[in-house]
Q: What sequence folds into this?
């Protein structure tokens, strides 16, 4: 899949609440084996714990030319030399994040399954818009991003789109032609062998 011209790139999400010492070897292993385009750190955790994880993730990822973003914490991104932020509130803070981080930073926006929020985020200057969950999930409001949303976005909007949440090999196959990035995280970290699981998902 990753060899085709119009194939999406792999966007990796670190485990929620993971300790830096635990996740470091796993991240290095995954990024040595798979062509990761961007690494995202979930925003849950204490300032100290997130800071340690940010430093470790930056060191591992930047050594492999992989960008690193953190969810929502603009000041942590600045303090720890990350490449930007992934905002979980749609378009609401895109302009603020851009002002704080500068024009070269990555500012992404998660817009659930809302075309309207996605368009607002794109207009506000987001570098990418993320929709999800793509599969059935009891998390959040229980809604999920339909395939036709990605189809429409890929045809009408130039801002890159990320597909994430409850992804299966079948869904990834359907989303591949109409997404710029496929975000994987919980799908692999909950398994006994994350690297092997990612190999089955990312083919």
A:
């Amino acid at each position: 899949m990753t060899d085709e011209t119009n194939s999406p790139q792999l966007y990796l999400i670190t485990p929620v609440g993971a300790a830096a010492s635990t996740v470091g070897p796993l991240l290095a292993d995954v990024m040595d084996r798979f062509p990761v385009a961007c690494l995202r750190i979930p925003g849950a955790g204490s300032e100290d714990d997130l800071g340690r994880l940010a430093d470790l993730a930056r060191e591992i990822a930047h050594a492999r030319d992989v960008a690193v973003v953190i969810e929502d914490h603009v000041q942590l991104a600045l303090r720890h030399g990350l490449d930007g932020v992934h905002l979980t509130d749609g378009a609401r803070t895109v302009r603020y994040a851009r002002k704080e981080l500068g024009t070269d930073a990555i500012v992404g926006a998660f817009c659930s399954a809302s075309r309207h929020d996605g368009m607002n985020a794109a207009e506000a200057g987001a570098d990418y818009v993320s929709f999800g969950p793509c599969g059935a999930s009891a998390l959040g409001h229980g809604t999920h991003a339909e395939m036709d949303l990605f189809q429409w976005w890929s045809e009408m909007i130039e801002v890159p789109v990320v597909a994430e949440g409850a992804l299966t090999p079948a869904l990834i196959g359907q989303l591949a032609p109409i997404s710029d990035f496929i975000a994987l995280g919980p799908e692999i970290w909950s398994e006994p062998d994350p690297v092997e699981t990612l190999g089955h998902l990312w083919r």
